[in-house]
Amino acid sequence: MGKFKYAGIKRSLFTATKLSLLFAALFIIAAAGGSRQTQRTLQSTSPFPIGAAIDPGLLQHNPAYRHVVETEFNSITAENVLKWAGVHPVADRFDFTKGDILVAFAQDHNKRFHGHNLCWYQYNPAWLRSFNGDSLAWEQLFKTHIQTVVAHYKGKIESWDVVNEAFHEDGTLRVEDTNPADNNDDGCIWARHLGKDYIARAFEYAHEADPNALLFYNDYNEEISPAKLQAIINMVKDFKHRHIPINGLGLQMHININTPQAGITEAMRQFAATGLQVHIAELDISVNPKSDTAITYSTDLQNRQAGMFAFVVHQYATLIPKKQQYGITTWNVGDADSWIRHTYRRKDWPLLFDDNYAPKPVYDTVMNVLTAVKAGRR
Ligand code: G3I
Q1: Whose alpha carbon is nearest atom 13 of ligand 1?
Q2: For 241-289, what is each residue's pLDDT tens digit?
């Protein structure tokens, strides 16, 4: 047999071997992939990004929490560590340690990262609240903070809540503390020291630092405060007219089982009409809005909560045009972490996962709605 013929036989044997190895490998991958594919998750089922506000401590030290975040969500938001008190704890020092942990996790697991937030009337460090400078000094402080933080995460954080909760329920801008006696300043130091147009400049400063980042205005109660909703819509119209760089609106949706559904629909409709990205940014659904101390998480409450989750997800998927669906983010992962329990010191079960990070029956409801909307079933 000529060398080539032998080589030919040898080659065909080699080819057969190679092909069989390839098929074996493909079978193993398919089998493995198959088991992964049969594991339906929020992120594998949702037609839009689905996320949670997370905490680096829990992510590092709680395996059950980490597993849920890794497998269920394809978007994460920093709950607290990128706020002024988290990332700028003293006047002359930024601390990106905890934010870097979250960003590294997001990059390692190919998840979108939504930054929260660059400017808020709350959760500001003591040094800032007592800062004593003229308007120029305040402006420099404001601009330097925004541009330092955004530049640090340029190309790593896809989007930012640039300004958070700038309006009162009646649609007026937060400026002065409306009730100094209650030791809770519900005004805004930024408006007081920088003037009412600080919001526009916050967006301009952020855009200068990272022109590719998507910039959001984020607020709560749009679904029950028509005046606040209108104030936000008016601001968007003004920004568009002035070419202020704004890309999206955050509808926080901290709602409860009694929240009127008509208001939710109206807020989504109006936000969709702006043409901007619409992010349900902080979804949780309280079952105990009256802080009833004797309440139990009854089947009736669970069913009412599931109905509200289903309504929100279905309305979002059908009212917000696909190209504007920035996604739905729940605020925290499991009921035990919810800000609601800690802030109102009450029993509540507002999320999709229980105190041990196991999916609750309401999780199955959301999965069914996501499956239906993904299949285009209305
Ligand atoms: O980290 C300190 C800890 O060292 C200290 O021992 C403890 C004592 O109370 O406080 C801890 O800081 C707390 C922080 O959460 C981290 O747990 C603050 O007191 C507490 O005020 C802070 O609450 C956060 C709140 O925003 C204020 O920043 C909540 O976790 C967070 O879920 C909540 O999230 C907000 C959004 O940013 C904006 N939309 C509303 C939403 C709910 O209020």
Answers
A1: 80
A2: 999 999 999 999 999 999 999 999 999 999 999 999 999 999 999 999 9
Nearest to 73 by CA among 328, 314, 357, 371: 328
79 CB near ligand 1 (under 6 Å): yes
Give the pLDDT confidence score for residue 19 in this predicted structure.
Answer: 52
Q: Which residues are catalytic?
A: 165, 282
Widest distance between CA atoms in the chain: 102
CB 186 within 8 A of CB 174: yes
Is residue 322 pLDDT above 60, yes or no? yes
CB-based burial of residue 90 (10 Å sphere; 0-12 exposed, 13-18 middle, 19+ buried)?
exposed
Neighbouring-strand partners of residue 127: none
Q: How far apart are CA 284 and CA 79, in angstroms?
A: 14
Summary mean pLDDT of the chain: 92
3-state DSSP percent of the chain in helix, strand and coil, to 5: 50, 15, 35
CA distance 248 to 229: 14
Q: Give, using CA atoms, the residue closest to atom 43 of ligand 1.
A: 339
More confident: 19 or 241:
241
State whether the beta carbon of 348 lies less than 6 angstroms from ligand 1. no
> Which residue is closest in CA terms to ligand 1's atom 34?
79
| Ligand 1 centroid from CA 85, angstroms | 10
User: Mutate which of 122, 339, 345, 348 to test ligand 1's pocket (most atoms within 8 Å of Cβ)?
Assistant: 339
Given a cut of 50, is residue 36 above it in pLDDT? no
> 18-374: which CATH topology?
TIM Barrel (3.20.20)
The per-residue pLDDT for 31 is 44
